[in-house]
Each structure stands twice: as C-alpha cells, then as structure tokens.
Specification:
alpha+beta, Aminopeptidase, seven-stranded mixed beta sheet, 7 strands, 24% helix
Length: 189
Amino acid sequence: MKPDLILRRAVIHDVPSMLELIRPYVEEGTLLPLPAFRLFERLRDFVVAEDTGTVVGCGSLVIMWHNLAEVRSLAVRKGYQGTGVGRRIVETLIREAEELGIERVFALTREPGFFNRLGFREVSRETLPHKVWKDCLHCPRFSDCDEIAVERLLPRTATPVPDVAFPEIPFDPTLILPSLVKGNPKGDG
C-alpha cells in the first residue's frame, strides 16, 4: 500500500500522536526516550508525515554547528514501514538543510543501509565532535554505543561562513571526562 502522504511542519496538536509513534521505538531500544517537554522544546525541528489525517511518521533536523545538522527521532508507524514514509521524511529534512546552507547532515543509526540508500556514507564518530561533546557524553549508552554514524555531504548552496568565525571543535573526550579513556594514567579510568 502506498500511503497518500502529506509532509508538513509539526504543530502542537501533533505531539500526542508523535509520542505514541516514538514509544515503541523507545521500548525496543531503537530510539532514546523523548519526554513530552523535550518534544515541545524541539517541535520546530520536526516534520510529520500524515496519511488521511493520521500522523504516520516524524523526524527532526537539529542544527549542531554552522555547517552540520543531525537527522533525529526518525520514526515510522508500524505497518507503514517500507512504503517510503521514512525516505520522504529524510528527503524533506535534507532539502531544509540545503536551504539553510548546511554542508553536512549526519545521523546515528542502527539501520545504516536505509541511510546509505539515501546518499549517506558511514563515518567515524570522531568526525562529529559537536555531537559527541553535546549529547553523547550524557547518553546512558555512551560507553557501549552500538549506533553507526552516517553522513551526507550537501552541495554548497549558500555563501559559506568562514571557519575562522566558528573554529572546529577537536575530538578529545579526555578533555572533558578523563575517566572515559581506558588505561588512563591517572588511575581513574
């Protein structure tokens, strides 16, 4: 069955449906919990896919840095998987990133094949220090993460911001939390 999809920005009244949509993925461990208050805070980042008045998919684009954004909270209602809903959501988020002048879009996923079919390639998490430092350090799965980093490079559609204005963040988690590194010479790892 090919759903008759409408893709649009999420609005306040979508939140209960979005939470219901995300819940099974949280319960099976595919997605991290997304409390209602956090969803309301990030609602402007989300698009939803609607089929005859029912929200059947959602996903968000979170800007991490001047040249980097993340696809997050991608979820498709059970029964709609394999019908193109997830693909259409990601394509919509990619177009938004292009319009904003973002150069790289990434995701952390357990389904890299899905993203590979959309032009993403697997990369090392070390190429994403903004994500690691901002979010991963606080994740309950940080020390045993099984997600794969994928990224898609986008064509430059806007005048790039010089890196001098926004220098790159080096990847060195030991600067924040030395005990995360096994064999730490200080003996606290």
